[in-house]
């Protein structure tokens, strides 16, 4: 995956969060929203941005981190600006909706799980990046689902008390 590939990018979430914040602020401003709608409101903007993101993730270059982050922000922008984008049917699929439901838990737990999986597979001499990724994604989902069902859902029920 190059000297800055998928594994390294997943360990550096601050740039992704920062670019996401910038996109949120731009989309909140009417003038910038119009510009974003023109650029990202096209039906096929989302798959183009997603393909770019994957391409940069697979690029064997040391400078791919920032383009990956920018492409991720473009994927989000294209999905927000036009809800009927070309990837919408995929994102509405039940498995992805279920993953989205526990996305906060995924956000909180993914690095812990990645570290555990990397160490366990390394000890078993199975430290292949793709295997680490597959096991980490599956295990992160399980941990996040357990957290959602047994912990987060209790707090979500309380929010009705605080809304008018």
| Biggest sheet overview | none
Q: Which regions have little confidence, pLDDT < 50, spanning 5+ residues?
A: 1-6
Number of helices: 9
Order of helices and strands: HHHHHHHHH
Helix content: over 70%
- Compute the CA-based radius of gyration: 18 Å
Structural class: mainly alpha
Question: Can you offer a commentary on this structure?
Answer:
The chain has 164 residues and is mostly helical. It has 9 helices and no strands. Helix 2 (14-28) packs parallel to helix 5 (65-81) and helix 3 (30-40) packs across helix 5 (65-81). It is globular and about 55 Å long. The protein starts with 5 loop residues before the first helix and ends with a helix. Mean pLDDT is 88; it is low at 1-6.
Task: Throw out a few tags for this protein.
164 residues, mainly alpha, 9 helices, 0% strand, globular, disordered N terminus
Question: What's this entry about, in short?
Answer:
This protein has 164 residues and is an all-alpha fold. The chain has helices spanning 6-10, 14-28, 30-40, 45-58, 65-81, 88-91, 94-101, 103-123, 129-162. The model is unreliable at 1-6 (pLDDT under 50).
